[in-house]
Specification:
Elements: H1 10-20, E1 24-25, H2 28-33, E2 47-50, H3 54-67, E3 71-74, E4 91-94, E5 101-105, E6 110-113, H4 119-127, E7 131-132, H5 145-151, H6 158-161, E8 168-175, E9 180-184, H7 196-200, E10 208-216, E11 218-219, E12 223-231, H8 234-245, E13 253-257, H9 259-265, E14 279-287, H10 289-303, E15 308-313, H11 317-328, H12 330-333, E16 340-347, H13 353-367, E17 370-376, E18 381-388, H14 395-412, H15 437-450
Parallel strand pairs: 2-4, 3-4
Antiparallel strand pairs: 1-2, 5-6, 6-10, 7-11, 8-9, 8-10, 12-14, 12-15, 13-14, 13-17, 16-18, 17-18
């Protein structure tokens, strides 16, 4: 199948209407709504189907395979890389009505869910049992678990508790041939066969469509504290990150904000940042009540260096919530600064964060492009935002050249091009910078084994052959 939109045959459209009834939409208004995601890319599909169970998904995939119609699975469209944009037209499979919480099993520390349940709804249900699922992306309130799994989207807590790959025990899915597969286990240990679960998580719907997930859940901590450390220089903050991660007490979140991000945070009255603030770390510590004070003491000592301006703990839950609101509002706030935002989520070893932020400053000066960075510093995962005005002469070209230099910088620091946003459309042309040819060929062969007619989310993840 090529990356061209081809009108499905009338017999195909009739078949999906017979299968889904009113849950198959062909009218232009519905199609427009399901043709985009948070990347701001848009392509109108030929049909939208709202599946409610595994059997319907399997039947739809079989129809798409028979007629060779592309099929793009969509949660709620919160992704930023265009992974849910149906660039070949065809059918968008929406999972928003396939959103059940099948089971919560605290004794075995697992939950079984359907793909359309939102992260926030799942967390609320688990909290009633004293548990949580570790992945907590900024979009948790409006992103689905299926979408989190598709992109391996993690969030701040990954530093201590891991990513979706680390917290998914097993899956039920439908391959591109319409075959049902069951992967993984319901136990904390298992080593039978290849690990198809981890292969499917992060594959962006290109190998199979997840219809059920068995998730590893974790008891809620008894206590937590949020610290705010303010530094007079970028290098002081990034050096502190390496020091914190080199000592035994692992924070549950370690977030970084550069000078522009700090200036945005100042807009919130609750921030109260010192005038000398050039960079900020938000450091969350959690655990048993009996040990929380000692944990805070260890983290505070590790965070101290000659550039530290102040470090203090949030005094109450209201202040804690306000600090997190400031951090989580940064990404959407950047759209107010410039018309064009290129939002990347690169990762480097934490010991090389200082080199990364120094390199970003140099690139910004070299290309005349404003660069804002913040994010999950404890994993070395920074959200690097290139801001500009595409209508200004030559600016878009400078931004694109700067982006390629950014990726070269990251790879030169032993990093990777994406930590949690995924590849989708936005980064696929750069993937060959990181993946060597033999590995790339093997991955493309794996794609053909799962999806021989290339109907599942075609045109994503990899460059065109």
């Amino acid at each position: 199948m090529t990356n061209e939109s081809i009108q499905p045959a009338p017999a195909f459209l009739s078949a999906i209407q017979s299968l889904f009834g009113k849950r198959a939409r062909l009218d232009a208004a519905d199609l427009l709504v399901y043709g985009y995601d948070n990347s701001r890319r848009e392509t109108t599909p030929h049909a939208v189907c709202f599946a409610q169970n595994h059997s319907e998904v399997r039947a739809l995939v079989q129809l798409c395979a028979e007629y060779e119609v592309p099929l793009t699975t969509r949660g709620l469209g919160s992704g930023t890389t265009g992974a849910a944009v149906p660039i070949n037209g065809g059918v968008v499979l929406s999972t928003e009505r396939f959103a059940g919480l099948v089971k919560v099993d605290p004794e075995n520390r697992l939950a079984i869910v359907e793909p359309g349940i939102t992260n926030a709804v799942l967390q609320e249900a688990l909290a009633k049992h004293g548990f949580f699922w570790p992945p907590d992306p900024t979009s948790a309130a409006y992103s689905t678990v299926g979408g989190n799994l598709a992109c391996n989207a993690a969030g701040p807590r990954a530093i201590k508790y891991g990513t979706p790959r680390d917290n998914t025990l097993g899956l039920i899915a439908v391959t591109g041939e319409g075959k049902t597969i069951k992967t993984g286990v319901c136990t904390s240990k298992g080593v039978v066969g290849y690990d198809l679960t981890r292969l499917l998580v992060g594959s962006e719907g290109t190998l199979a469509i997840i219809t059920q997930a068995t998730l590893r859940i974790v008891p809620l901590p008894e206590s937590s504290r949020l610290l705010r450390a303010v530094y007079g220089s970028l290098q002081g903050a990034t050096s502190a990150v390496a020091n914190i991660m080199a000592q035994p007490e692992t924070p549950s979140a370690l977030e970084f904000m550069d000078p522009v991000a700090v200036s945005l945070v100042r807009d919130y009255a609750e921030a109260g940042l010192p005038d000398r603030a050039a960079a900020v770390l938000l450091i969350e510590v959690d655990g048993n009540k009996s040990g929380i004070e000692q944990a805070v003491k260890c983290i505070t000592a590790a965070a101290a260096n000659e550039d530290l301006v102040e470090i203090r703990a949030a005094e109450n839950e209201v202040e804690t919530a306000a600090l997190w609101t400031c951090r989580k509002s940064l990404s959407p706030a950047l759209r107010k600064i410039a018309p064009k935002k290129i939002n990347e989520d690169v990762v480097v070893p934490v010991t090389r964060l200082t080199e990364l932020v120094s390199g970003l400053q140099e690139l910004s000066a070299q290309y005349g492009v404003q660069i804002v960075s913040f994010g999950h510093a404890g994993n070395g995962n920074l959200h690097v935002n290139l801001l500009g005005n595409p209508s200004a002469q030559g600016e878009l070209q400078r931004m694109e050249t700067c982006l390629q230099e950014l990726f070269s910088l990251v790879l030169g620091l032993d990093g990777t091009l994406s930590g949690e946003h995924g590849i989708g459309l936005e980064k696929r042309q750069y993937v060959s910078m990181e993946i060597e040819p033999n590995a790339m060929q093997l991955m493309q062969q794996i794609k053909l084994q799962f999806d021989p007619k290339n109907i599942l989310n075609p045109g994503k993840l990899f460059p065109d052959p």
